[in-house]
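My main concern about presentation is that the manuscript never shows what a single data entry looks like. For the editor and my fellow referees, an illustration may be useful. For illustration, here is how one protein appears when written out as sequence plus structure tokens:

***
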Amino acid sequence: VGIGATAEMLGIPVLPFAVGLYLPVHLSTPAIVGGLIRGIADKKFNGEEGEKRREAGVLLSSGMVAGDALMGVFIAVLAVIPAGLTADGTPIKLAGKLQSFGTGIAKAGGDLLPVVMFMLMGIYLYHQVVIKKLPEKQKKAS
């Protein structure tokens, strides 16, 4: 309660502050990066063009979140599909078969591969929202 009251007195929005305290860094970092990209876009563009770019960024980011959720469901399905039987008749799950492939990727890239992929997605989002020119028909719509 004391932290929330102090944040309120300092004029810090309480909900984002609380989410930032509650969520681990690996879950809040994408939101921070997205917010920074939006802040850059808001400073660079205003009016209708700024609104169109914001909409494009929200749409792309929502698609990334939905894609992540779908991949989670896909991986969960793989965890229950049998891929065969062991010598004693115990089912081998497909995810177990694929685990050796994932282990090989982890050994090759370690923690660097996820960081590189995150950076590439951030660069792509920045490009789509800030750098890419809007098509003429999209600028004139509205």
Observations:
- The CA atoms of residues 41 and 131 lie 9 Å apart.
- The longest strand covers residues 82-85.
